[in-house]
Amino acid sequence: MIVELISVGTELLLGNIVNTNAAYLAEKCALLGLSMYHQSVVGDNEERLAETIKTAAGRSDVVILSGGLGPTKDDLTKEVAAKVMGYELVEDAHTKARIEEYFKNSQFKIITDNNWKQALIPEGAIVVDNKNGTAPGLIMEKDGKSVILLPGPPNELVPMFEQDIFPYLNKLQPEIICSAMVKICGLGESYVETQIADLIENQTNPTIAPYAKTGEVHLRITAKAGDEKEAKKLIKPVVKELRNRFGSNIYTTDESKTLEEAIVDLLLEKQLTLTTAESCTGGMLAARLTNVPGVSEVFKQGLVTYSNRAKRKLLDVKKNTLKDCGAVSDKTAKEMAKNGAFITGSDICVSVTGIAGPDGGTEEKPVGLVYMACSYNNKVTVKEFHFKGERSKVRESSVVNALTLVRECILADDAKQ
C-alpha cells in the first residue's frame, strides 16, 4: 500500500516550528511496511490545500494529514478534506460531550463558540477520540482510499497514532508487519554497516535498516508474515546473528530503552554507585542519568567543575597538573575521575573535560578534543576523542561516549572475574 503525508500549517512553511510530526509519521509508516513516495507541506489556504489533497488521493491508498484541526478560522483541514472527499459536516454528540468534559477538567473553564467547530465531523467518518486535546482524529474511507486527519500538536498526535491509527493501518495490510530493534554503542556507523554488508545485500524478508544516532547505531529488523508469530520467528535468527557479530556492544533489543536506562539497569544489577565529574558538558551527563526513574538508588553525585578553581577545590586536581598539562588533558581527566570516586565514596566516577568550541581551540588542542576517564575497581581508564561539529554536537557526543565508557569498564571487569 502507498501512503502520503500532508503537513498543514503556514507556520511550517515559514520555519517557525520544526516539522517533527512528518519525521515521526514517516518512520511509523515504514515500520508498517507502507510505501511512501511523497510528502507535502501546505499553508492554511483552502485552494492550495484542496489541490494537495486531490493530488495525494489520486496516487496513494492512504493520505495522512496533520494539523489544521483547531477551533480558529484558519484551521481548514477538516472542512477542505471533507469537501474533497464528498462528505457533509454534521455535529457529533459524542465529540461535543468530550469537549465539554475536557474544559470541565482543565484550567480554562469557559467554552467559546468556536470550540464547537471541532464537534463537527464528516458524516459517516470514523471518529478517533483525542485523550489529550479537543480536536478528534478522523478517518474518511471512500472508493478504497483512506484519508486520515490528525491534530498538529505532537503530544496529541503521537499517542493518537500509537493507540488508534497504527492498529487501523496494520489491519489494512494483507500481511502482518513486525520489527525488532538492536541498539549498538561504542562502534561507528561505517564499521557496523561494513560488518553487516553481506546480510543487507542478501536480504529479502526480513530486512535490516541501520539508523545512525549520536554515538550509537540502531538496526531495525522488519519481517512480513501471515501472522505475528510467524513474523517473530523470521526475526529471531537475524537478531541472534547480530548478537554473534557485535556481542557486548549491543546494549539492548528493547526499542523503548535508552542508553542511560541500560546503564542504570546495569548499575542496579551490579549494586554499584556512580558519580559524574563534568567540565565541558556542564551537567548534561548527570541530566541524562537523572532522567531515568530509580536512578537515585545508584547515582551519588553530579559535580560540574567548569573552572580550574572548581577542579582543584571540588575534585582535588593538582595545581601542577592544571599548570603543566592543562584542564583539557588525559592527566586532568584521570585525576577528576579517581578523586571524584574517592571524595564521594562511589564505586565508579566518570569524568569529562574538553574544548566544545566554537572558540578556545589551538593547533595543539583543537576544538572537539575531549578527554574522559572512568575510575572503577582501583583502575582508571582514560580515552581521548576528537569530535566534529558545532558546540552542541561535541557536548552531546561527549555525553554518549561517557555513558558508553562506564558500561565498557563494568563489562570488562566482569569478563576478568
From TrEMBL:
InterPro entries: CinA, CinA-like_C, CinA_C, CinA_KH, Competence-induced_CinA, MoaB/Mog-like_dom_sf, MoaB/Mog_dom. It comes from the Bacteria. Transmembrane segments: none annotated. Residues 4-172 form the MoaB/Mog domain. Belongs to the CinA family. This is Putative competence-damage inducible protein. It comes from Murimonas intestini. The gene is cinA.
